[in-house]
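Anyone have tokens for histidine kinase? Sequence:
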Amino acid sequence: MTGQYDYKQFRVLFVDDEEQTTDLVGEYLLDTFDVVTAYDAESAWEKFEADPDSFAVIVTDQRMPGDQGTDLLEKIRNLRPRTIRVLCTAYADIDAAIAAVNVGAIYKYITKPVETPELEMHIMRAMEFFLIQRERDLLMREKLSALQRLMMTDRLISLGIFAAGLNHHMRNGLTAVKTFLDLTPIKLQSENVDLEHLRNPNYWNHFYSTAQESITKVLDLLKEVQEIPEPPCVPDGDDIDLSAVVSDALEREQGALARRSIEVDFTPVELPKISASRVMVDRLFDLLLRDESENAKENGKMKISLSTAASEAGIEGVRVLIEDDGPGLNKDNLQCLFDPFFTRSGKPDQYGINLLAAFFLIHHHSGSIEADRSEMGGVRFDIWLPLDPSAIPASLGEEAFLQRVMEAERAWEKKLLGE
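Reply: yep, here.
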């Protein structure tokens, strides 16, 4: 937060049954605030309820026809607890003050008559309190979100590196076994062994073909695992049209999607081109669509949309949303979605590494991917890729972010101490 506050960023609701006073106060405050006035609690509640997120401060009289000021503040507190509530009344009775604190949880109690400049100062302090509180909440959410992303990235990188290291040792052993199996028919012929004279030749033929198929499948899996943690082997210098990339990927995956009767809703749009490795971006969307074709609901729907979007740090990029209509995942499973060998469908014949590989490809291009439940009923992938990854410094925004946190904390402490 800086020393300057935008007092018109949010609105002030001023409520008093004295119409002339209300109009004069509203007119006086217009130079400083975006003021909305009301002459009774009922009309004030209607105006507030119509757009509750636009209001920061509520100033209300206590004694009015119909609902009292504390009744209005209680309803506002239940709907938007962060809105700053001020009670202003000519009746300085202890009952109204106690009710205002206990029921309406007010920020300040002002006794009338009050000079308009003094009222303006009270509202300014209330607005500052709201803005600091809001900035603090936003920073806290941003900090928790950044921490969660950092923890997930660190965990997945560790898992990827571990998988790649394990891959090396497993591949050596399996290559020896596959070589032995490949040489088995030749060796049997050299030993003059006729399979047809064995007591159960079908068993040995089936055993041999199954072993070959299983070894090939595991070696293919290890090949994919080996490529997961590797950064791009070429500079991110290609100018890529993501609409064209998605269209091409859909065409390549068309057969698999058609076999499961998955209907795709995608309309290409004109977007700024991103700088990236074309080979790796093609592979990224092949992996994502392959995961969808394997895990989306049969006879279901999948929707893909593209748009321009800036990151939290203001870096321009392209946002890709991929969502389907089921089966959905609970919160715990969503956290595991990018883990290696986790499968949405639970089918044992799936590797469960498509999304892990996609995560690393996006990470290598300085982008981000998040998974959540879709409004369609299934899973939604929210992908963001920068237009120019080279423009993003390694320690993007860390110092500025920490400075904002410290300034917000200092301002918050001052407000709590009444300075």
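Residues 11-114 form a domain with the Rossmann fold fold (CATH 3.40.50.2300).
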